């Protein structure tokens, strides 16, 4: 087996692994991860087959985000995920990154704990299988997120990521807020959404939901009670519970402004 960097040529094989696991990431999501982080997305190759993956999205020196920790079922329990994670953590340390975070599934959590990660807060995947309340008149317009608003909320500069995601579908903005959406393998993905006030978030999210009539996924931090209330009011229910974990310096920003994550793989 070989551990090596993933490249654009691996997108199809990597996306096949995530889709077979029931995850929502598309070829485009993998393309974004690899385009933005060409030196920190790794995989295990066994006899020409991509057996395992893990990605590290770097947001300057402030923060890096681990995602897409996946091992094909027939290659599990051989230490592949652990070796990939150790490699990514060594990379983060070499870059002197202050904080590394991730959103862990139940099966992933013990592995991360053994690598020194500490629980920060819960994260939830909310879903809406069918159409909910219809679109309403909204003051949201197509635009670009206000510079600085996202960084203040998230705690690190992810402008390059937002730039990539904005190419997937029009960003809706209102005064002091924005929302994005993108397609997914199983459902349209709502997020990221950052807003200074709950009324702004509601206006933006209602407008975004009005643009697609199929099923939706929405990842949020339930400590933001306004986000939970809004998701419930718009016909969403909790489908999965995850745990946000961190290693290094604690980093909490203006999370009451974050109504939807950019993705479990992005933060
Ligand atoms: C989680 C996952 C990536 C582990 O991959 P893997 O290559 O089999 O993991 P490893 O062989 O490196 O095992 C790492 C540790 O987890 C333990 N482990 C692995 N699979 C386990 C399981 N199903 N149940 C309990 N423990 C498990 C191993 O014992 C090992 O511990 P050790 O190093 O102390 O012996 C893989 O099961 C998977 O792809 N699951 C579905 C996707 C997922 O949930 N990913 C995590 C996202 S946060």
Radius of gyration in whole Å, from Cα?
18 Å
> Any ligands, ions or cofactors bound here, and which?
coenzyme A
Number of helices: 8
In terms of structural class, how would the helical and strand content be classed? alpha+beta
| Largest β-sheet summary | 13 strands, mixed
Secondary-structure element order, N to C:
EHHEEEHEHEEHHEEEHEHEE
CATH topology of the largest domain: Aminopeptidase
| CATH architecture verdict of the largest domain | 3-Layer(aba) Sandwich
Question: What is the count of structural domains?
Answer: 2
Number of strands: 13
Task: Report the CATH C-level class of the largest domain.
Answer: Alpha Beta
Give the strand content.
25-35%
Instruction: Please state the overall shape, judged from the principal axes of the Cα atoms.
Output: globular
Query: Could you name the ranges where pLDDT drops below 50 across 5 or more consecutive residues?
Result: none
Distance linking N and C termini? 30 Å
Mean pLDDT: 95
Percent of residues in helices comes to 25-40%
